[in-house]
Structure formats: C-alpha cells, structure tokens
Amino acid sequence: MTARSRILLRQVHLWLGLALGGLFALLAATGSALVFYIEIDKALHPAIQPTASAPTLDWSSPAWDRALTTARTHWPDPHGNWSFEATGEPGAIPARYYPSEAHGHHAARTMVWFSPDGAQVLRAEPWGGYLMSWLYELHMHLLAGEIGSQIVGWSGFAMLVLLVSGIVVWWPRGSWRKALAFKRNAVPIRRLRDLHKLAGVWSMGLLFVLVGTGALLALPTVKAQLLTATIAAPDPIPDPQSGASRGRQIPIARALAAARRAVPEARLAFIDVPGAGPKPFRIRVQMPGDPHRRFPGSFVFIDQYSGAVLAVHDVRRGNAATTTVKWIRVLHDGSIAGLSTRILAVILGLVPLGLFVTGFLHWRRRLAARAQAHTTGSFS
Asked: What residue ranges are annotated as transmembrane (predicted)?
C-alpha cells in the first residue's frame, strides 16, 4: 500500500469512527447486558423465581392447557395468539400474547408469566415496558421499529469497514514486536494510541463476527439475498393452514402428542397457539445438532381442529444456507459454547466503548497539539 493510500484510509477510519463510534459503543454495551438478560430479568422480579417444588414442564405436562385456559380467561380475545416457552427448567411459564390486531415482527405484545401449574398469572407487562425488554428494543431497533432495524443493520456493515480499515492502517511495515508494544513511559498521546490499537488488534476477529452477525440479524432480507448469491436460497419455512377455518380447537396436549410422534428425538422449545381461524399450532423444537437451545430452527405444524401433522421443517434436512442460518444467532449472542463464550461476549461488548473513548481522546489531543504548533510556529 502506498503512503498516500494509507493516509486516505486513515482518514476513512477516523471519520467513520467519529460518526459511528458512539453508536457502536451503545449497541455493543447493550448487547453485553442482553447476554444474560433472562437471568437478570429473573433477579429483578422475584415473583417468577423458581421454587424447590416447581415442576419442569415437558411434552406431556397438563400445565400447558391449564395455562391456556388461564390466559384466555384474562385475555378473552378469541382471535388472539399465544406463544408458551418451554424453558426446560423449573419455575414460571413464560408466554407472549399477541392480540388479534397485532401483525408483524414489531407488533405490540404482552409478556406474561404463569405459575408453574398454569393456574395463575404471576406477572404481565407490555414488551418494551420493563428494563430488559427496553434494552432489547434499544439494541435491536434503537426504539424505532423497522426504521431502527435498518439503521442498526446498515450501520453494522459500515462498522465492518471501520474495523477492517483500522487493521489495515495499523498493519506493520517493519517490526511486529514494535507494532504490538505498549510504551508505558511514552507521552499521553502515544499511550492513548497504543491502547486503541492493541484493543482493536486483539479483539478485531471476534468483533468482526459479532458485528457481522448482528447486521445480518437486523436485515433478514439482506441476509437471505447474500446467502442466495453466495451459497443457495435458504429453505423456506412452511406456512400451512388448518383444514377448516372454524371449529373446536384441540387441546395443547393433543397437538404436542402429534408433534412428538413426528419428531420423537426433538426437544420442545415453544408452543405457538393460534386464535380462531385457519392458522395451525406451530411447535418449535430443537433437533439434535441445532446449536441454539432457546430459538432453534425446526418446526412442526399441527392442524388446530383435527390434530393432523401439516408440515415439518427440520433444519437437519436443509441446504448449506439453512445450516449457515442456524449458526448466526449463536455466534452473535455468545451461546455457541455455553457459559464461557457468553462471558467472553459480555467482555467483548465493552471493547467498542474503550475504542471510541481512546480514539476520540487521541484525536482531540492531536488537534490540540496542532493548534499549539500553529500558535508557537513549531511544525513537525
């Protein structure tokens, strides 16, 4: 790279950092908080803490139907949709309620926690109305819905350029030992520069993964287009309809029994219960080999009136693009290897704040030094 090209790239890195550094730090810091957001939310709300006698709900637990009865007593909208989470742990039953007028990913919903036996409502709050959900909306959508998602996603791609330009500008032309050194006794401006470069160098690879996967999660259409262009079109998730549009809905227990017969090796993750109409039950399951425990990518669709299996979406049978998709979320949230990588993700999420602060202070000190040189007539 020529000296002129390096100077130009340094300017690109500087102005991208000044323009996006604050946003980068905000998204990374909120991401750090969200790595353990379930655990933090439980700690903040003792009412949903598990008790010693609480059962762990599975495929055959009667509490699912009891919770649905309780839900429809408190929220009687016949066209409202419910989603019950099977956490695999003892304690309250988390659920989401989508009223009949709710449509789309950003639709208003109520988060509800039922007692372990499903007979009582322990807590109910609108999504975004309590701390951890507010942080999630800030991290994913900047509290601005679809427009916020677009800003987060496209800014993420710009942040990738910021990261790459920083490494290219730093890349040593001489001694690697000198390039990786931190001079403790140097002048403050040099120490700031060393802190900035070393934080960036040692975290760059992991930050690239976090930022890249975050941008793809924020822009699902772009993700699908990129995968289609580079690998293949991801296998579409089926969208079957029940054989009738009205009738008596079967119990959850019957829908789960049908789903379990279809995928006996699966672990139950979510039960999506439709309101009145043609939509089927959607049972979200984790198949062997699926890396994400909480949001796995396989589904079984059950006719809500007849109990027939309408479709099965098994990520194990998907193409290379579908396989790639199932790894994006676990790479982004740090759950890929359990507790150790989640802790690493928390630490890594604080690095952009350090990069922004050290980069900004270094830039200000350089401006001050130049101003002083102009004043004194001393130029270097």
From this structure: 12-38, 151-171, 198-219, 343-363
Q: Under DSSP, is residue 56 helix (H, G, I), strand (E, B) or coil?
A: coil
Secondary structure of residue 176 in the 3-state scheme: helix
Q: Is 187 exposed, middle or buried (0-12, 13-18, 19+ CB in 10 A)?
A: exposed
Q: Which residues pair with 111 in a beta bridge?
A: 96, 125
pLDDT (tens digit per residue) in 17-54: 999 999 999 999 999 999 999 999 999 999 898 776 77
Question: How confident is the model over 290-339, as pLDDT tens digits?
Answer: 999 999 999 999 999 999 999 999 999 999 999 999 999 999 999 999 99
In the DSSP assignment, the letter for residue 285 is: E
pLDDT (0 to 100) of residue 79? 94
230-255 burial, b at 16+ Cβ within 10 Å, e below that, comes to eeeebbeeeebebeeeeeebbebeeb
Q: 208, 206, 201: which is closest to 160 by C-alpha?
A: 208
Domain locations in the chain? 3-18+141-233+351-376, 37-135+238-337
Predicted TM-score (pTM) of this structure: 0.90
Sign of CA dihedral 242, 244, 246, 247: negative
Q: Are 155 and 23 in contact (CB under 8 A)?
A: yes
The three-class DSSP label of residue 250 is coil
3-class secondary-structure state, position 271: strand
Report the phi/psi class of residue 7: left, alpha or beta, with left for phi > 0 and alpha for psi in -120 to 50: alpha
Indicate left, alpha or beta for 361 from its phi (over 0: left) and psi (-120 to 50: alpha). alpha
pLDDT tens digit sequence for 157-184: 999 999 999 999 899 888 888 888 888 8
Eight-class DSSP state of 314: -
Question: Is 212 in contact with 156 (CB distance < 8 Å)?
Answer: yes
Backbone torsions φ then ψ of 272, nearest 5 degrees: -95, 115
